[in-house]
User: Fold these one by one.
Assistant:
Number 1:
Amino acid sequence: MTRRLPVLLLLPLLALGACSEVEDAVRDTASDAGSRVGCELAQPAVDEGRAFVERVAQDIDADPAAAQQELSAAREALELAAPTLTGELRDAIDQAAAAVEELRAEAQAVADGATVDDQVVQAAQAEYDAAAQELTGIC
């Protein structure tokens, strides 16, 4: 009986270790599934936004009020997707939304009478492109 006792004491520990491995596998599978769903939601929005950001950036001085409204709508669309995402996906969406917000602020400044700051516009475009590329790399 004394020889069996150490073996019997190890069985619960082995079972706990196996449970831990199963929990890790389930967590990884759930994380992968969440990432796939996140990509399905985020990728189209960011891809469509890329052409939109380029177009608005080029025409920001033609109709800054309209650009501001369109950029506000684009930012809101990105922000709607953000709460459902985590990790790198969330970071990429947040970065894209920040770039759109920079363009929206520039459109507001132009609507208020300022001249277009090409550096701000180019930096926002570059930031949006970086976010879109990051998202593409993740997905």
Note: The chain is about 85% helix and 0% strand.
Number 2:
Amino acid sequence: MFAVMFANLMGSLVVVWSAFRLVRPTWAAGVADTAGRLLFSLGMGAALLHGASLLVLGMLVFELVWAVVQGGVMLSARRAALA
């Protein structure tokens, strides 16, 4: 029961954060989102090391790829703002 409750809580937070990012796309929110992706990836890596299903590995790969892409966009935006 607690696992379902926490899964719903995390899902709700993801939906609220995604809506916020769509309505107010700022550089700071993008950086926070990228950092969150990296932290989430760290948690998935830890889960894998402790015996989680290999399905998590597939999700981890996509999460890391998206973090790199998003981080690149954020760096480009920052450089453009400074130039």
Note: The radius of gyration is 15 Å.
Number 3:
Amino acid sequence: MTPVRFYRLSLLAPILLPLPFLPFGIGALLLFTLGFGGVQYAIFAAILYVAIGRLKSAESIQRLARWVPVLFIPFQAAGWLINCYFERLSNPALIGNWDPLLPFAAYILVAGYGYVGLVALTYHFAKSAGYIENNEL
């Protein structure tokens, strides 16, 4: 497997990882991540899929991976603001709700870097076991 294929497949981690943990309660928290930002993540993952394909080495993909949680925050904030806009259309008494954006950004960073760390660890073990080809693409 090439590093590009590995990192492209790793984009599925936020979708697939919560499923086995559902019976243990932690899955609910992980699914909250997907439910809260599923549409935004799908758009973001499609952009990352293309970007990963254009990078020339595993190191450059890993540099991108370190920034992914930070880069996702504007996508998540846009989704939140669009949702607030439509809620306000249905109920004009609602005010614009910017208050949760900072806590949600912190949550995105924690969850995002958790996934990034898991992917980096998996890549390291897969490469040392010989499942990943040379860094040169």
Note: The mean pLDDT is 82.
